[in-house]
Design brief:
Elements (H helix, E strand, L loop, with lengths): L6 H11 L5 H22 L9 E5 L5 E3 H16 L3 E6 L6 E2 L1 H4 L4 E9 L10 E9 L10 H4 L6 E9 L3 E6 L4 E7 L4 E6 L10 E3 L10 H12 L6 E2 L5 H11 L1 E5 L12 H14 L3 E3 L19 E4 L1 H13 L5
Parallel strand pairs: 3-5, 11-12, 11-13
Antiparallel strand pairs: 1-2, 3-4, 5-6, 6-7, 7-8, 8-9, 9-10, 13-15, 14-15
This protein binds 2,5-anhydro-1,6-di-O-phosphono-D-glucitol and manganese (II) ion (2 copies).
């Protein structure tokens, strides 16, 4: 029987295979694995640890923070700032970016993170996650970081990944050469390669949308969902958990499309470009899927602010194409 590959072994092997993966990036990925284990431990015992419920504070988006949002954010911050690889961090839970090591003068990389995705599912024991992406710094080493280091297009991502605290805990990531998934063995606290070379099935049969938004969504989205409903007899199904990372992961494995549309009252949608849309768009692209906003490839959007939001449609190519033809056949400006 062949020996299972651990996350650490996989990261080290990838470093040898791809010269651009420096020692700093290897250490950074390992640190994310460590932080994931700490957060996973708290998520698993949340009901016992007095860590359910609201923290009493609000985040940068004026959303009530849960205690686990705050715990996950401070854990990733503490571990990532302690290493030498990270110059700065942008977090969904922080008003502004955080500079490490003397105003970000050291460290080759910038991290963007949604420390706890699916906060509304924490208290009801439903799967939640962490989403992250890593960029190379733009300003030279030795100079303080500035806005341009954080406001990079999704095409510039070096790594994107997520951790899913589900019925098992998984870490899924890409360095731009495919997508690999690792499952944690809770008995020994180690991630093992369980899902090599993950690919969106070519034909998706699942659509994932908050149905309550549909009437306020663009006509193209309404038309697409109408078509899905009509195809129910062919096996089309609606599945929506309300944790983006979980909905994305299911659709990646089974084939489907996740939609968080623009609406009349929220023309930019709800999801955050830097912490949610870009990382999942990069993973989708690497897994043979695709991600768009109302008019273009998510990865091509030039961000103008750290916390900007974007409509988000991500998943299997055939369903993206179906949505595209709906944009073309309705009056929407696409
Ligand atoms: P977060 O918990 O990081 O704030 O993200 C919540 C997001 C996403 O996970 C989920 O898909 C979406 O919000 C659900 O929004 P609705 O409740 O509007 O459907
Ligand atoms: Mn989120
Ligand atoms: Mn979050």
């Amino acid at each position: 029987m062949s020996k299972a590959i651990t996350l650490q072994e996989f990261i080290m092997d990838s470093q040898a295979e791809f010269p651009f993966v420096s020692g700093q990036l290897t250490r950074l990925l390992s640190d994310i694995g460590v932080a994931a284990k700490i957060v996973n431990h708290q998520v698993n015992r949340a009901g016992l640890a007095g860590i359910l419920g609201q923290s009493g504070s609000q985040n940068a988006h004026n959303e009530d923070q849960q205690k686990l949002d705050v715990f996950a954010d401070s854990t990733f911050m503490r571990i990532l700032t302690a290493g030498k690889s990270v110059a700065g961090i942008g977090s969904e839970e922080q008003d502004d970016y955080i500079l490490c090591h003397d105003h970000g003068k050291e460290g080759k990389y910038v991290v963007m993170i949604d420390p706890l995705d699916g906060s509304s599912n924490i208290d009801v024991n439903v799967s939640i996650g962490t989403i992250f992406s890593i960029y190379r710094r733009v300003t030279p080493l030795g100079a303080p970081l500035s806005d341009q280091d954080f406001l990079q297009q999704g095409t510039e991502q070096v790594v994107a990944g997520y951790i899913l605290y589900g019925s098992s805990t998984m870490l899924v990531y890409t360095t731009g050469t495919g997508v690999n998934g690792f499952t944690m063995d809770p008995a020994i606290g180690e991630f093992f390669l369980s899902h090599p070379a993950m690919k969106f099935p070519e034909t998706g049969m699942i659509y994932s949308i908050n149905d309550a938004l549909l009437d306020a969504s663009p006509p193209a989205v309404q038309k697409f969902i109408g078509g899905c409903r009509e195809a129910q007899g062919l096996g089309l199904k609606a599945r929506y958990i309300g944790s983006l990372v979980t909905d994305f992961h299911r659709n990646l494995i089974k084939g489907g499309l996740y939609l968080y549309p623009s609406t009349k009252s929220n023309p930019e949608g709800k999801l955050r470009l830097m912490y949610e849309c870009n990382p999942l768009a990069f993973i989708a692209q690497q897994a043979g899927g695709h991600a768009e906003d109302d008019s273009s490839n998510i990865l091509d959007i030039q961000p103008t602010s750290l916390h900007q939001r974007s409509p988000f449609y991500v998943g299997s190519l055939n369903m993206i194409q179906g949505l595209r033809s709906c944009w073309m056949s309705t009056a929407d400006p696409k």
